[in-house]
Write a structure and sequence with these properties.
Zincin-like, binds zinc ion, 135 residues, 3 strands, single chain, mainly alpha, 3-stranded mixed β-sheet
Length: 135
């Protein structure tokens, strides 16, 4: 995804949707960045200051949304008083919950906002799929 005004707006709207759906009360700061996270992940959540970092370079919009929803779920987990263990095995149940939650959030949002998948298909097919029937 390119960091155009429209794309940033699309992600912002989705993030607001997630914050509402998850019932997050904290003020969250989300950074969309062209650079990588520096870790073997596409995003991370910093519990110290409720910030979410998401790498966007060479990724589809729906994929970025999944990462946004995943990291926001960690924010909600923290609000609920969840402790984040330091070991991978201890973290796994929290990761599984975030993966389930993010998949669900993107899937249902995508049903009403089909344009989130627009960069996954070619322009020709897009015209075919989204052209209104002529009557
Ligand atoms: Zn995670």
């Amino acid at each position: 995804m390119k960091l155009t005004k429209e794309n940033v707006q699309t992600i912002t709207q989705f993030a607001k949707h997630c914050i509402r759906e998850l019932g997050i009360k904290s003020s969250v700061k989300i950074t969309l960045s062209k650079r990588q996270t520096g870790q073997a992940t596409a995003g991370y959540y910093n519990p110290a200051d409720c910030t979410v970092f998401v790498a966007v370079h060479n990724r589809a919009i729906a994929d970025i949304m999944r990462t946004v929803a995943h990291e926001l779920t960690h924010c909600k987990q923290q609000e609920d008083g969840t402790e984040f263990p330091n070991d991978d095995e201890g973290l796994q149940p929290l990761e599984d919950a975030a993966n389930t939650s993010s998949g669900k959030l993107v899937r249902f949002y995508g049903r009403k906002n089909r344009d989130i998948y627009s960069d996954l298909i070619s322009e020709g097919l897009q015209r075919f799929l989204y052209s209104s029937p002529k009557s």
